[in-house]
Amino acid sequence: MLPFPSERPRDGGQIRAHQTGEALERAGFTVVRCPIYRAAWHPNSKYQPPVINLDDARITPRYSNIWQVYDLTNGEILAHDADCFAAFVQFLESARPDVLMLEHPWLWPAVKRLPPSLSAPVIYNSYNCEADLKRRILQEAGVNDADIIALEIEGLERELVSAATAVSATTEADAAIYREWTARPVVVAPNGAECRIRTHLRGVLPDIIKPWWRYLLFVASAHPPNGAGFIDLAVNNLASISSDHRVVVAGTVCDMIAEHLRSAAGSIAGSDRLLLLGEVSPVTLDCLIENATGLLLPVTYGGGSNLKTVEALLAGHPIIGTQKAFRGNERFTGQPGIIIAETPEQFGSAMRCVLSGAAPSLPQTNILDSITWANTLQPIVDVVTTTQHLASNNVSERNECQYLSESPQSYFNNKFASTTIEIIGSPAVVFGLPGDEYFEKLPAYAAQNALFVAEAQKVPCDGVIIDVGANIGVTTVLSSRCIPQGRVVAIEPSPLAHACLIRTIAANALTNCTVIQKCAGDVEGKVSFVEAPFLAGSYVDLEPAHEGRSIVVASADAAKNDQSPSTPVLVSMTTIDAIVAELRLQRVDLIKIDVEGFELDVLKGASNTAHRFRPRFVMEFNSFALAANRKLSPLQLLDFVLVTFGSFSTMRSGVLTIIQTPREARDFLYSNMTSAHCVDDILFG
Question: How high is the pLDDT of residue 366?
């Protein structure tokens, strides 16, 4: 599944996708390419038109005015535009794939909505960890919601990595991150290149380049990190090179550089020594590479491995590049002919050295054979082979989280609001939904967390707190501030609450939080989840969902119209024990549970964690929610806590009372139902 065309590829991502398909075909697989994109954005769409042209969509996605995340919005369109999604389903029904391979995470929202009849193992072929890269791009573009969007992208990629049967990364650094997110196989398949013979093109040049010039060549797409690095490191060194030397740039990155030159209004000295050729034909590019004096790799940020680095290594010319440019190819940085330069001064000195002829050419040793596509992509072929074998023997697993409704527009059309409240002595920004009573009366509800505040402040500053039922983020902010060197794991299955939660985390610049958009329970699987008008009261519904049954969903529209009918959502469920294992946590100090009647299931799914780490638990005891939502006697939960932990405590009017016997538990329940409006916080562990 491709978010772009891969025939006649124009940039690194398209080249990798093209080569991956060919590698799988050489291995004997039938590869059905499913390109889904907006044709207007890709000039080479005429060679491989999209299976579904998202230009035809009838909905307007979020962030539609931010071109830097058009790939994210494309995935949203495919998942939520009824016609586009129907065409997607129809295509897959015809193709009947044994394995679904996703190039990039953007189309995952649609894949996870596929009906069970199209269930197939998913392999995520990652090019880089997307969230940090997008954050940097958006920040450099001055986008106000950069951190919020980046958190959403991280959540998307985490969910895909967790659900995928296997993951492929391009560097060990990226693979290490993914292994923190999943216990399933993660392989490294770096970018490669083709060995090309160009010696017959020696002396063959475009007319614009004089035969007596020495020149450095920079080839790149319009991917923002490409242009940013060249502008930062190379542009201001143009005046320092000789008048018969040039810097030649080819590729769509030229537009970005030209815009920088225009904005500088002629103030950049030596700009006459810069040639911006734009996009050139493959033959012209071969001529430029063969006759270059040296190659430039001014990459200053980004993830994954740089495809142009591998192409430069195989060309044999001297290379000037940053350490970042050699991600995944660090073993070559000590080779003769490779100059690492991190600052404009170092880059300028290296440019003059190479243009003077003082730098040696890169030796073409046998080790370079290892970076051709045939070798670098073999791990992907192996993973697909294994996955197909498992699928054919009916032992594959698909972890899906899908909407029960056909087109859940409400989940991305809500208008979020924010308010500022005080959390342990400092102001905090919290996002919520207008019209939601919990959000509208947030200071009063936040003041009810006295027991959790007291316990959270006892956790060491490098401790771990798990916030089960994080909702819109009040207790997550509180936890983060109590353990600035520690880690907070915030678990929230509600799509609406999760959207508010990640905005709250971003607005308060919380860097020690991991957000998991799943339901915590006692088994892994899927459950129906009801989003209530009072968003903090949303709950797991274990009764079978009936087609046509409506509930009221808290939303901006609901605030205006009193109610907005929708069907429940089907969400993924996991256990605390599974999360602790997946995140490889070495300690857990405190677990907060507020899950509207599902507490017993959560506790059963945390038994190993409780035994291994002996954390403290602060849990909301809501006798009404236990009876109404879970169809469970409240005494069953209290008895379980007493048997498992020996006792529990509750706080009333600032006084902590210890409950140790079944009789005391029944007295507590009576008081809870008659004096506390059915809601108390209890402490145990």
Answer: 53
Strand partners, 684: 617
Which is nearest to 337 in space by CA: 318, 324, 356? 318
For residues 494 and 474, what is the distance between their CA atoms, to the nearest angstrom?
Answer: 15
What is the phi-psi region of residue 667: left when phi exceeds 0, alpha when psi lies from -120 to 50, beta otherwise? alpha
Q: How many helices (H) and strands (E) does the chain have?
A: 27, 28
Please write down the HEC assignment for all residues of 322-349: CCHHHCCCHHHCCCCCEEECCCHHHHHH
pLDDT band at 555 (very low <50, low <70, confident <90, very high): very low
Read off the tokens for 170: 């391009």
Q: Which of 677, 568, 504, 586 is nearest to 180 (CA)?
A: 586
Residue boundaries of the structural domains of the chain: 12-189+377-392, 199-366, 410-684
- Model confidence at 404, in pLDDT bands (50, 70, 90)? very low
Q: Provide the whole-model pTM.
A: 0.68
pLDDT of residue 548: 35
The CATH code for residues 199-366 is 3.40.50.2000
**199-366 and 410-684 share one CATH topology?**
yes
Decide if 191 contacts 372 (C-beta within 8 A): no
Tell me which residue has tokens 């899908």: 402
Asked if residues 18 and 9 have their Cβ atoms less than 8 Å apart, the reply is yes
pLDDT digits (tens, 9 = 90+) for 482-531: 999 999 999 999 888 888 888 888 888 887 888 888 999 999 988 888 88
Nearest Cα to 532, choosing from 601, 453, 624, 444? 624
Mapping DSSP to helix (H, G, I), strand (E, B) and coil, where does residue 16 land? helix
- Collapsing DSSP to helix, strand or coil, 484 comes out as coil
Scored b (16 or more CB within 10 A) or e, 280-294 reads beeebbbbbbbbbbb
**For the structural domain made of 410-684, what CATH number should be given?**
3.40.50.150
CA–centroid distance for 174 within its chain: 12
Q: Read off φ and ψ for residue 183, nearest 5 degrees.
A: -95, 0
- Cβ-based burial of 393 (10 A; exposed 0-12, middle 13-18, buried ≥19): exposed
What are residue 431's DSSP bridge partners? Answer: 418
Structure confidence at residue 569 (pLDDT): 79
